[in-house]
Amino acid sequence: MQARLTNPGVLATDVPKAVNLLYKAAHGSGVAPAVLELVHLRASQINGCSPCVDSGARSMRKNGESDERLFSVAAWRETPYYTDAERAALALTEAATRLADRGDAVPDAIWDAAAQHFTEEELGAIVLWIATTNFFNRINAALKTPAPQQW
């Protein structure tokens, strides 16, 4: 795949500052970093964002995530590797990423399940991180940004 821009930094010079603020807001909320990593990876898988899937998986591995959990994120419903809180965050991620798949984009049952495990502030941070991830996914998809070719 050939990237459409050789320098994605031309999008806007203030974008890194804004992204850093979003990152700090989401990661400073008290949500476990592993939950936010799972949210990022799952949304990126759904959207087919190769650089975000790559960076998300690498970040999870760097932070000590097990191969079982890392390799089974796309099949989280069928595996025993995730807590109930993580499952609720993953369900919320899928619903909020696939907005057009149903009339009620995020059904009350999904929201209520997440609310059993996270405070209102944490829920806000998870939704913010889902939206931020989708933001990156859409930029990378539009620009055909490839995953890095370094191993």
TrEMBL record:
<dbReference type="InterPro" id="IPR003779">
    <property type="entry name" value="CMD-like"/>
</dbReference>
<dbReference type="Pfam" id="PF02627">
    <property type="entry name" value="CMD"/>
</dbReference>
<dbReference type="GO" id="GO:0051920">
    <property type="term" value="F:peroxiredoxin activity"/>
</dbReference>
<dbReference type="InterPro" id="IPR004675">
    <property type="entry name" value="AhpD_core"/>
</dbReference>
<dbReference type="InterPro" id="IPR029032">
    <property type="entry name" value="AhpD-like"/>
</dbReference>
<feature type="domain" description="Carboxymuconolactone decarboxylase-like">
    <location>
        <begin position="15"/>
        <end position="94"/>
    </location>
</feature>
<protein>
    <submittedName>
        <fullName>Alkyl hydroperoxide reductase AhpD</fullName>
    </submittedName>
</protein>
